[in-house]
Amino acid sequence: MPPQITTSPLSRPDGSATYTDALSTVLAAVNGPLEVSRRDELPSEATLEIHVRPAAGVGGPRERWLEAVLHAVLRSVVLVHLHPRALVQVSLQVVREPAGGGVGLGKGRGEVAVLPALVNAAVLALVGGGVGLEGMLSAVLVAVGGKGELVVAPGVEVLEGCESLHAVACAAGGGLVMDESTGRFDLGVWGEVVERAREACLAAFASKGEDEAMANGDVEAEPWMRQVLEEKVRDANAWREST
Amino acid sequence: MPREAEPSNNAKAFLLQALRENVRLDGRAFDEFRQIDLSFGDEYGVATARLGKTKVMVRVSSEVVKASADRKFDGVFTISTELSPIASPAFEVGRQDQAEVLLSRILEKTIRRSGALDTESLCIIAGQKCFHVRADVHVLDHDGSLVDASCLALVAALMHYRRPDFEVRGEEVQIFDPREREPIKLSMQHQPFCVTFGYYEDGSVMLLDSTLLEEQCREGEVMISMNRFGEICQIAKYSGEPVDAMSVLNCMNVALEKVKVFDKLVKAKLEEDEKRRDVGGLMAELSAENAR
Amino acid sequence: MPLDTSTYILAHLRLDGRRWNELRRLQAQMSTQAAADGSSYFEMGNTKIICTVAGPQEQKSGGGGRSQQDKAKIEVEVNFAGFSGMDRKKRARSDKRTSEMQHTIASAFESTLLTHLFPHSTITLNLHILSQDGSLLAACLNAATLALVDAGIPMTDYISATTVATTASYADKEEEADPLLDLNGLEEQELPFLTIASSGGEDRVCSLVLETKVHMARLEPMISVGLDGCSQIRGILDGVIRAHGRKVLEGKVG
């Protein structure tokens, strides 16, 4: 099932989006460019500030780690040089997490499992907020099952019995911008995982014409991100067509 | 940090002039709430309340902890209110804002001090184990009346939440997974709701459910929390121009009416949600009261 | 901490022997601290407070105060002395109750002080609580009024405050319900009560804080007794201020 997305659910932030997949739901809000405090000001580029808030409880080291990973990922696509001495604020609220914060999933897995949702929600909100991006970006979760089979965007049942978990994000050119893996796996498996993930990521915003996977009826390869954004653009331009 | 944008003098003057002519900018009556919307998540204890554009999500969760030494027969109940930049860029992370302190104090007084949740029922073994119920209030969109919306969402979430069932055998405690045994509702003693009155024109105009712009222009506010039996849990009039004692008393009657509406709304929505979950009457079968 | 106040109905005398509408002994002095711009010492029974005022003075630099350029900003700091309460408990700096109290006091005075006369400046109130025995917020407000008068900051009126409790919190015990004026610490723990502050003469409620569950039918008598208490206190404050003014005119104090 392709992920469920609501664009601009909130009225206050410059851009917002909710992203729901089989595992988690994340609400993202983007504000920017804003005035930056003296302490965080960077002379040549925009400061990217990321807040991750857990569904229950207050943020801890886990959230700080997620923020650090997201910062590196998003900085690679946001055109930070366009807005020197400014602030782009990305706030992410986790609404639903697999098995209540990854308690039942074993150590380290819950964090990795929620990462793709955070990345995708953040990117959608950035697009909604009109923050300049170098190109599109999407992320996907790949699980390697007990028998070595690869599952793209797994459900909770797969997650519980899997050997390793990989959160992978790819930018439009096919470049790998995030890879967080956990569990036991070897280099060969990892290579396969990245290949599959890259396909899935690129398919998310591939234009319909050049995408052959669509013809095969492969559901995972549906360009969900492109569809959502195209629809949003169409809605935003509706007034122009009607006049 | 960016500040909340101040409304322009023109916008203020327009709003105040309109109020003088008995008109609100969005066409509502003075004592009319915006569209109230309450929805529940797939999990127990997640409630989202909307008052117009204001949106608050509350998530209730629980864990088993060691009971505190000085309150042996009580469980622990905490409310956490952290305002994040999602609601407004003016809210900074990690710094306690005045608005945050007041919101958390009002909720604390309304729900916790008034004993809305029976904490004694959260005790598992006196002095050793108890449930720690925590409610996380996430303000998602801020367009005025934060306190009212948060309180509504919080009460709804508490009533919606089910804690895991447990069994005590001597010293041993077994906590059942929701899949093993149907979880249990929290025991609530009453359901308090908060109603905020904003006043203008020397107290002669009282508005309910102010939008952010109305909040920024008002002379002062009175926050009243009460339950449907007319028991007041909290009144707070911190700031603003003095008002007549009589008009404060009038507020009580209006608040009672609104609280009854809230109370009905929450109950209706809960019933609706229960029906949605109870596909094919499974609930009755799973209930622990049935003979095994 | 359950405490037996049920004897009240027998003799209509409270724990400390007062009747329902009696205030505790109020004692106040002004200009107690020579170094401050304005200061006062205020006693309400065993609740004892020192208040000092600094300002109006130039606003401290820093981002926070930019929003109010056209008026003076009022800052309040409440300090609890370690020996002030029954148990020597240290309060954290970020204590939300203290922070709420500070906000209440600051915003109460925002409506009576003529802050628009001092743009770009700050008025700082420091309240040191030496001894707590109930009616803390009310005592703080009264002490602050005296100190602000001493500092010569223009205001439209005094703020006088007091607390009122009711002996029955539920609707059914109509005949037993008596409002009690000016609570001490023990009564405060036992009974539902509210703090009321008034300014500008009759019936104008400046702040009103109620934190314990009480039925709405009890509220009307509580508020009217409270306002009555406020006007009594206002009279006492007025007396203190006039006596002090006379001394200043005679050149006895600086």
From TrEMBL, chain A:
It is found in: Nucleus. Keywords: Exosome, Nucleus, rRNA processing. GO terms for molecular function: RNA binding. InterPro entries: ExoRNase_PH_dom1, ExoRNase_PH_dom2_sf, PNPase/RNase_PH_dom_sf, Ribosomal_Su5_D2-typ_SF, RNase_PH. GO terms for cellular component: cytoplasmic exosome (RNase complex); nuclear exosome (RNase complex); nucleolus. The keyword rRNA processing applies. Gene3D superfamilies: GHMP Kinase, N-terminal domain. It comes from the Eukaryota. Residues 4-127 form the Exoribonuclease phosphorolytic domain. GO terms for biological process: nuclear mRNA surveillance; poly(A)-dependent snoRNA 3'-end processing; rRNA catabolic process; rRNA processing; U4 snRNA 3'-end processing. The keyword Nucleus applies. Belongs to the RNase PH family. PANTHER family: EXOSOME COMPLEX COMPONENT, EXOSOME COMPLEX COMPONENT RRP46. This is Exoribonuclease phosphorolytic domain-containing protein. It comes from Cladosporium halotolerans.
UniProtKB/TrEMBL annotation, chain B:
InterPro entries: ExoRNase_PH_dom1, ExoRNase_PH_dom2, ExoRNase_PH_dom2_sf, Exosome_comp_Rrp42_subfam, PNPase/RNase_PH_dom_sf, Ribosomal_Su5_D2-typ_SF, Rrp45. The keyword Endoplasmic reticulum does not apply. Residues 32-164, 190-257 form the Exoribonuclease phosphorolytic domain. GO terms for biological process: exonucleolytic trimming to generate mature 3'-end of 5.8S rRNA from tricistronic rRNA transcript (SSU-rRNA, 5.8S rRNA, LSU-rRNA); nuclear mRNA surveillance; nuclear polyadenylation-dependent rRNA catabolic process; rRNA catabolic process; TRAMP-dependent tRNA surveillance pathway; U1 snRNA 3'-end processing; U4 snRNA 3'-end processing; U5 snRNA 3'-end processing. Keywords: Cytoplasm, Exosome, Nucleus, RNA-binding, rRNA processing. GO terms for molecular function: mRNA 3'-UTR AU-rich region binding. The keyword Isomerase does not apply. Its main location: cytoplasm. It is found in: Cytoplasm; Nucleus, Nucleolus. GO terms for cellular component: cytoplasmic exosome (RNase complex); nuclear exosome (RNase complex); nucleolus. Belongs to the RNase PH family. This is Exosome complex component RRP45.
TrEMBL record, chain C:
GO terms for molecular function: RNA binding. It is found in: Cytoplasm; Nucleus, Nucleolus. InterPro entries: ExoRNase_PH_dom1, ExoRNase_PH_dom2_sf, PNPase/RNase_PH_dom_sf, Ribosomal_Su5_D2-typ_SF, RNase_PH. Residues 22-154 form the Exoribonuclease phosphorolytic domain. Keywords: Cytoplasm, Exosome. Transmembrane segments: none annotated. Pfam families: RNase_PH. GO terms for cellular component: cytoplasmic exosome (RNase complex); nuclear exosome (RNase complex); nucleolus. GO terms for biological process: nuclear mRNA surveillance; poly(A)-dependent snoRNA 3'-end processing; rRNA catabolic process; U4 snRNA 3'-end processing. The keyword Cytoplasm applies. SUPFAM superfamilies: Ribonuclease PH domain 2-like, Ribosomal protein S5 domain 2-like. Gene3D superfamilies: GHMP Kinase, N-terminal domain (3.30.230.70). The keyword Cytoplasm applies. Belongs to the RNase PH family. Component of the RNA exosome complex. Specifically part of the catalytically inactive RNA exosome core complex (Exo-9) which may associate with the catalytic subunits RRP6 and DIS3 in cytoplasmic- and nuclear-specific RNA exosome complex forms. Exo-9 is formed by a hexameric base ring of RNase PH domain-containing subunits and a cap ring consisting of CSL4, RRP4 and RRP40. This is Ribosomal RNA-processing protein 41. It comes from Cladosporium halotolerans.
